[in-house]
Amino acid sequence: MESINLSPVIPPGRYRHYKGKEYEVLGMALHSKTLEPIVVYKPLYNTPDVPPGALWVRPAAMFL
C-alpha cells in the first residue's frame, strides 16, 4: 500500500490572509485521484455571490 503524505499539515484554526480577510481551516483532506493534500476551509466574511457557510477546498501548496 502506498504511504499517504499530508505534508504540509495545516492545523485547524483561524487564519488571516495578507489582504486582511479571515478564514477558518476545518481540516485536511486528500484528493481522491491524486492523493494531493487539500485544505478544507470557510471564509469568515460574507460575499454576495457565495452562500453563507459554504465550504471551500484548495491544494495545501496553494493555501500557503
Q: Please report the total strand number as a whole number.
A: 4
What general outline do the C-alpha atoms trace? globular
Number of helices: 1
Instruction: Identify the CATH homologous superfamily.
Output: DUF1653-like domain
Head-to-tail CA distance between termini: 29 Å
Q: How many whole angstroms does the radius of gyration measure?
A: 13 Å
- Main beta sheet strand tally, sense and closure: 4 strands, antiparallel
Structural class: mainly beta
Strand content: 35-45%
Tally of structural domains: 1
Average predicted local confidence, pLDDT? 89
What topology, given as strand order, has the largest sheet?
1-2-3-4
Helix amount: under 10%
Structure description:
The protein has 64 residues and is mainly beta. It has one domain (13-63): SH3 type barrels. Helix content is 6%, strand content 38%. The chain has one helix and four strands. The chain has one helix at 60-63, and strands at 13-16, 22-30, 37-43, 56-59. It has a four-stranded antiparallel sheet with strand order 1-2-3-4. The chain is globular. The mean pLDDT is 89.
Q: In a nutshell, what does this entry contain?
A:
By secondary structure, the chain is mostly beta strands. The protein has 1 helix and 4 strands. It has a 4-stranded antiparallel beta sheet with strand order 1-2-3-4.
Key features of this structure:
mainly beta, SH3 type barrels, four-stranded antiparallel beta sheet, 1 helix, globular
